[in-house]
Design a protein that fits this description.
28% helix, transferase, Aminotrans_IV, three-stranded antiparallel beta sheet, seven-stranded mixed beta sheet, alpha+beta
Length: 259
Amino acid sequence: MKILDSYLIKDGRVVGREAHEHRFSLGAREAGLDQWDIEAFLLRVRDELPDDGTYFPKIEVGANGALRWQLRHPPALRSTTELYIPTEQDQRVYPRVKGPDYDYLQQLREQARTVGADDALLHRNGKVLEAANAAIMFFPGWKQETDSAAGAAGLTPDNGAPSDPSAVPDKIALLPPEQAQVLASVTAHSSVSVLHDAGWQVHRGVLSLAEALETPAWVGSSLHGWTRLTAWRTDAGRRQAVAAPDPTSINRALWEHAS
């Protein structure tokens, strides 16, 4: 089983470094590797990574079970994102593990690029999951509608208490439930406390495709950070996304907490 992870490193610092390593370790153990070998490998990578400059290293378990890593320069970073909505629903076999479905996800991204989008949406049974190479965070309260997509989605706050659809505050950030069939996003996980500090309430829930099209959103990854979702694309054309809040301060805070 192929397992991989990647993250942006700036002058020796990484947002959510331990979370990246933990996610990789879980996948590597599922692939049959010994925990001691995994830990020794990750310590060696830490030791060999440069202390200055900006890089986008990749760590992986190859098809033959070998642990290896590659130091790469990052591609051009983007500040906004357009998402392609494929007609087929999510076909991943291991949605909670990064690596086994890599070829399928890259194929989706290439399809997205043929219509001018940056990445592809993953959806199943009419519900939005995430992007092929990124997490998605919605802002249902940003529209200032108390009976909008937030109430329709049956949201619950991140602390597990039931929400009151009639009293949705403006500053709600919506992430998938932790048990959802999505990859555990390090960017999203690292953002929860930062969002709380900035006065946002983090809720857990899912939106339908129809609701998602009417809801402001960010798209987030280790490489690009959080970017505004500015458009949806299909094979038939392009649709402007609802304007989302500015993620600049959240991205800045993530790097302030990087180690």
